[in-house]
Every structure is written in C-alpha cells, then in structure tokens.
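Appendix B, example 12.
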Amino acid sequence: MALGPPLARTVLSGLGTGVAGLIVALFQVVAGCSRLAASRLARRTTVQAGLALLVVSLAGSLSALGMGSAWSLGLAAIAGGIGYGTRFVGYSSAVTALAPPDRRARLALMYLVAGYLGSAATTLGLGALIDVPGLRGATLVFTAVLLASVALILSGIQRLPR
C-alpha cells in the first residue's frame, strides 16, 4: 500500500495522476471485499493466504516497474488487496481470540492503533527512502524487509489460534 501511489505514477506516467489513483482505489475496494469473504475462513488460512498474496503482489509490482505494464500493476493491486484484507481478518480474529473477554476491546484497539501507526511509519519511511536511491532502490529495500518479515511471521504461525 505504501508503494502504490509512486509505483502507479511511474508505471502509468503517460495516463495521468487520476488513472494512477484508480490503482490505489482498486487495492482498497478489493481489500474491503476480501475482508467480507475471509471472515468465513480459518485464522491460519487467512494469514497464510494473505502473506502468500502479499509476496505475489510484490512480485507483480516489481514486474510492472520493470516492464512498465499497467496490467501487471492492476493484477498486483488485486492480489495485494486480497492479501491485505484476508490478513487483516486473520490477525484481528486471533487478537480477539487470545484476549480475555474483559480486555478484548482494549486489546483490539491497541492492535488497530499499532497497525495504523506502523502503516504510517512505513509510508513516511518509504517516501523518504524513495528520495535517496529512487523508486527502484526503495522497492528493493522494501522487498527485502518484507520477505524477512514474512519468514518471521510464518515461523511463529504455529502459535496462532486456529
């Protein structure tokens, strides 16, 4: 999500900022719809599928950047939206399942605040990083950090409630 606007502006440079904004909107709409569909799945399934789709989305974004392909970027946005939505459902339900009943609301609130602050920090950090090595360099750094994070999450997923 943090790389969406600069990637879209770069890949779709000849089509204008409005079309680039549609890629971000596509991501958000698909993420919202996938939250509804993912609520019927098991927690581990949503987390694992969401992480896999996040990696697919990143690969598609790198491909779109390298080839200048609007279709690749659109498919990456769809995969990323599904992954983002399903992960959100899986993590949220795990947080509420782990919390004692009298603290669920507080823990859910802390989870959401931490998530949104993390998203904001990532967006600001990537924005600053893009200024130094450029979009391609920032995307590669982001890819390395993301893949390390996915590996760490997958290594601890056995502790996640079903």
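The mean pLDDT is 84. The chain has one domain: 4-159.
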